[in-house]
Structures are given as C-alpha cells and as structure tokens.
Amino acid sequence: MNFGIVIFPPKDVQDAANSYRKRFDPHYSLIQPHLTIRESESWDPPTLANAVERLSDVAAKLPPVEVKLNRFSTFYPVSNVVYMALENPKPLERLHEAVCDGPLAVRERKYSFTPHLTVAQGVGGDEMHDIYSSLRPIPLAFSFVVDRLHLLYQTDNGAWTAHQTFLLQG
Amino acid sequence: MNFGIVIFPPKDVQDAANSYRKRFDPHYSLIQPHLTIRESESWDPPTLANAVERLSDVAAKLPPVEVKLNRFSTFYPVSNVVYMALENPKPLERLHEAVCDGPLAVRERKYSFTPHLTVAQGVGGDEMHDIYSSLRPIPLAFSFVVDRLHLLYQTDNGAWTAHQTFLLQG
C-alpha cells in the first residue's frame, strides 16, 4: 500500500490553490492541496507500524513551523510543474530532514527536497509556460503555521485517504 | 467552516465502494468512502477547539469497534441512497452516542442515526431502484475493526480535508 506524508495548508490557501488546480492539475480530485513532506512509497504493515512510531516520536519533539507562500514558481526544465513557493524553505527543509530519517529515511531520492504547493502538473511544456506566465504576476501572500503532519494512503483509483495526524508539539 | 466526523473503512472496502461510487455517487471525487459518525456542521474556532478536546477525551476511553458490512440496503423512500449496511449497527450507534454528546451534541437531527457506507446518492427514484436491484444480489462480507475517527473540514469546492485523527484507545 502506498503511503505519503503531507501538510495541508489552511482552508483559504486550499481554496486559492484549488481555483488553479481545477484547471491545471489532474490530481485535483485525488487529494486536497498539500505540501509533500515525504513522497509516496509502498509500505508493508511492519513498515507502517515503524513509521507511525517514528512519526509520533518526532512530531512530539518538533515545534510548529511558520510558512509564507510568496510567489508562483516552476520546476521547469526538471519537471513541468508550477507551484506556490516559500519565501524561506529552510524550516520545512529541516522538518523534512527530521521526519525522513531512521525508518523513514528516503532510499531512492528522485529530486532534492524543495517544499512546494503544486497548482499545475501533467501538462505539456508550452501549456506549462502559458500557465506560469499567467500566474507569475499574481501577488501571493499566505502566511500560516504548520502544526501537524498527515500520513495518507492511496486507494486503487489514485485518491488518498487520511490514516493518522501527528501534531507538532515540541 | 464545515466540520464532520467520519470513519474510513480499510482500503479493500474503499476500493470496492469506489467501484460503485464512481458511477453512482456525485461525492466520489470529494471524499473517500466513509461511514459518517457526525454530520457536517459549521463551527467557529472556539467550537472547533471544544470539539477537538471532547473528541480527544472520548476517543481515549472508547474501545475499538468491530464492523461487518454484510449487504446492500437503501434509505428509500426517506432518501434515494443505496449503501453498504452493517450486520449489527449497535456498536457504531453506541460510538455515535458517545461522540455526539456535550459540545458535540446534535441539535437539529434530520434523520435517526443509522451507520452506513453510501455507494449511490443524488439519483432519481427510478435510477436508484435500478442501482439497488443490481447491487442487492451481490454478496458482501467485509469485516474490520474501527480503531480511529477522523475530523474533516470542507473546502469551497465541496471536498474534504483531514484536520485530525483520534485513536480509539479504551
């Protein structure tokens, strides 16, 4: 079963992101707008049990993290993704490093970790450039505190279900 | 903001339910298959805080609950809904009563609480009868243990996001 760890931003950020995702992101109906902390990976039940224990321990010690989304950016040419970018990615990078260690260490890393909230993906290069050109001038100023992580799993239709929440209580 | 409390059944039940929901349930892309424990209600932040405190306290004392879905049923003529029904609804009725008390008491009750997993809704009477006739002969035997509740909130597009999980630890 595929498991992933994400942050859901507050409702106002989700509503804004969904207004773009509805048109530009084929994952729109599979999961709500999110910042991925650990990419999807197939886990057997013992791995899940270890992961839950690890997440409980780590979250209990980690303090909440302030996030400010201040612009649209793109991963082009690495991938045709447009996303809401963080003014300062460092705190979420540290959160990612703290979470993705021990039994949650990432073995096969496809990309370096860059916290982001995807609003467009799975589109061709020309379309991506059009989308990015139209979004880039839009001012973005969402500030919020991340005080929890969500462990999700995927059903056969590609959609994601909540397994457990971990509150950052450090 | 609208909040609701649900149980997500295991992945195999979700996959089976989604195979019907995809065709017969307009909520298919808004939320994964679930059993509602408390209907959606608009809460302000203090109400949410009270609800979270209440849920934490109640869940810590409640034991996990065994559920067996053993047939398809319908709420017709009260509503045009087809659902997976419980062999014995009593344990989830008791869970509902324990959760929906104090600050979570249900003030305006539309229907008596009947635990169910909806697979078809929002269809006309004739179509509902066709769906029910086609599903009714299908044998159903899903047994699982419910060991957590999920508090969800709704974004403007009607989709639901996980707010917090509460483990039944009694």
UniProtKB/TrEMBL annotation, chains A, B:
<feature type="short sequence motif" description="HXTX 1">
    <location>
        <begin position="34"/>
        <end position="37"/>
    </location>
</feature>
<comment type="similarity">
    <text>Belongs to the 2H phosphoesterase superfamily. YjcG family.</text>
</comment>
<dbReference type="InterPro" id="IPR009097">
    <property type="entry name" value="Cyclic_Pdiesterase"/>
</dbReference>
<feature type="active site" description="Proton acceptor">
    <location>
        <position position="116"/>
    </location>
</feature>
<dbReference type="InterPro" id="IPR050580">
    <property type="entry name" value="2H_phosphoesterase_YjcG-like"/>
</dbReference>
<keyword id="KW-0378">Hydrolase</keyword>
<dbReference type="GO" id="GO:0016788">
    <property type="term" value="F:hydrolase activity, acting on ester bonds"/>
</dbReference>
<dbReference type="InterPro" id="IPR022932">
    <property type="entry name" value="YjcG"/>
</dbReference>
<dbReference type="Pfam" id="PF13563">
    <property type="entry name" value="2_5_RNA_ligase2"/>
</dbReference>
<feature type="short sequence motif" description="HXTX 2">
    <location>
        <begin position="116"/>
        <end position="119"/>
    </location>
</feature>
<protein>
    <recommendedName>
        <fullName>Putative phosphoesterase FE782_20815</fullName>
        <ecNumber>3.1.-.-</ecNumber>
    </recommendedName>
</protein>
<feature type="active site" description="Proton donor">
    <location>
        <position position="34"/>
    </location>
</feature>
